[in-house]
Amino acid sequence: MTDPNLVYTYAVLRPTPEATAAVTHLRGVAGEPVHLVAPAAGTHRLAFAVGHVPAADYAEAPLAAHLDDLDWLESTVRSHHAVVAALVGCGAAVLPLRLATVYHDEDSARQALDTRRDYFLSLLERLTGHVELGVKLYATPDITPPDADADAAREQPTGLGAGRAYLSIRRRRQRRNEEAWRMVAQAAAQLTETARALAVDRVAHSPQRGSLAGSGPGTNVVNDAYLVRADGVDAFRTGILAAADGVPGLRVEVTGPWAPYSFALQPEPQSEPAA
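-> structure tokens emitted (275 positions)
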């Protein structure tokens, strides 16, 4: 009889006693117990943190439908991250895996882990003792991207005299805005260089728009992740905030520390889950 469950993988880590003890109290995205899976004893120094989840939700077709359900997606993301955060909290070096990385069964998961063993080990060596910090830079609300300002200028009132006067005012505002935007871009570039000097590595993500940009005011112009030594988090945060202090037109957010999601390989399953 076919197993109705799939194996959901959360992270790659070393199967230390601390990690083994930590997973015994964890529940995953489907409320399932989390445990460690590794190849045969004596041949490996790595494990997957996994849970068994229903194929009715995590096989390819139902999963695609669920990913369009924002409530389901938010709940799943939170549960996935909670497992990873708990593993990080026990002191383990962790490679977080992408959301909904699933395998047919534990044998398939073991095979995938064994196939990529050397790379996983080298990456864990690099990331041990490091965390991820996020740096988001925002142009203040009175400074808008030049294309947005140009669009607004085309929305003029009717009537020749009124239209000309309005366009003249808008053009002056647009020139001031473009100059302010250039200054913000220069300041953001300088802050990025400061952050790079305080970190081990950097990944530049696309600036966020809409609800993804957060609830704070302004336009997100930089959305970067930095790999920082765990004992250097305070120095990094202090250095960035000090460099941003008093910079006109720019607001900075430093988030974390997080598990190094942006610096961990996100491996594809070696076999596709059954539909």
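The first helix runs from residue 17 to 23.
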